[in-house]
Amino acid sequence: MSNNQAAGLSPEELQAWWMPFTANAAFKSNPRMYTGAEGMYLTMADGRKIIDTNAGLWCCNAGHGRKEIADAVSKQLLEMDYANPFSYGHPLAFQLANRLVEQIAPEGLNRVFFTNSGSEAVDTATKIARQYWRLKGEASKTCFIARVKAYHGVNWAGVSLSGLTPNRKAFGPALEADFLRHTLLPENAYSRGLPDNGAELAEELNDMIGMRDASNIAAVIVEPMSGAGGIILPPKGYLQRLREICDQHNILLIFDEVISAYGRVGDAATMAEKIGVTPDLMTTAKGLTNGAIPMGAVYLKQEIYDTFVNSSDTPSIAPEFMHGYTYSAHPVACAAAMATMDIYRDDQLFAHAGKMATPWEEAIHTLDHGRNINDVRNYGLLGAIDFQPHGKAGPSRAAQIANICLENGVTVRPAGESIVMSPPLIIEQEHIDTIFNVLTDAINTVD
Hints:
- By secondary structure, the chain is an alpha/beta fold.
- About 35% of the residues lie in helices and about 15% in strands.
- The chain has a seven-stranded mixed beta sheet, sandwiched between helices. The chain has a four-stranded mixed beta sheet with strand order 1-2-3-13.
């Protein structure tokens, strides 16, 4: 390990931090350090500029190092660095909630509850769902239905509803949940945009309702576009059918848009808006503050909110929802979010993402049926490439390809046997050309 590689830190100085979702011993023997970020680029400890195809971790939609956000955060820190959100308020929180309803929320979701992350947003949404049914006199509605290959964060509700075995197997019993099949079908391989086949998979929900009975089911929760599971897209008509079945059986529908919200899908603020399906609750985070300050938000229908605040079960002087966080609607996070919303609006980034989605699609599908490739898929500014397992010990093909890309100026994210990408929405043709030239060369290098 070189001193430059570790950004000047000694091996001893690398030990105290237990890193998340990381093979710690392997990292600390061969560290990869970022030391700067601007626009589409990350700076490595050795000074190299690397194109970021991951928008940080699905979150820096407006690109890195936005001065508008830095200035807003600095100003807010000096004006009011913290405000107690329990039975007190500050103007920026209300202004941000209204801004989000006007600029981001699908029509009909006009109430917002602030959290500090996507994981907390999922926990919050599930607690809202359970208490909602209790207030409606249907306290037996406690079970949730999620999907195989789903990722809903790492807090207890998210782990319970995760359809990724490694994310749940070590933690024992969790919330009661059933799981629909995922929608990654062989017949949809190499689809451009939403796949044609598989809408009938939504009918499995009827089977689960038949087994559980709707009187015991609080909500169905799905990522409209599964991210960490490998950018798994909904077949045309699938989400519409889930909405119909939930309506027929009086079950809430929750969209987890932690990844897909804030312009990622192009020409729309959210996947819900893009496909014309409105859930009852929607969880978001990541692009809310462009990754600058931790923050999440749960959007919900007014009828759900009204059920809480108008309940005769709660005295008017008591909280209707015994839930919240020390840092809910943190004023500095609110300032970062407001500045981010300004950037999205002023730079017309959602429209730009829609425009660049076309050359992005063309570029990624030049890899169709390439060396050791099983599938290529895309939607908006999202893309995934699935590789055939090599059947040997050691790093997967995807991990090997990602390492080669990094050495050649592009960072891509390996996820099992896949590479997933979600570049900042500021991407231009020159970046797309470089990304796929480097990626193609790397793919052709690995056996």
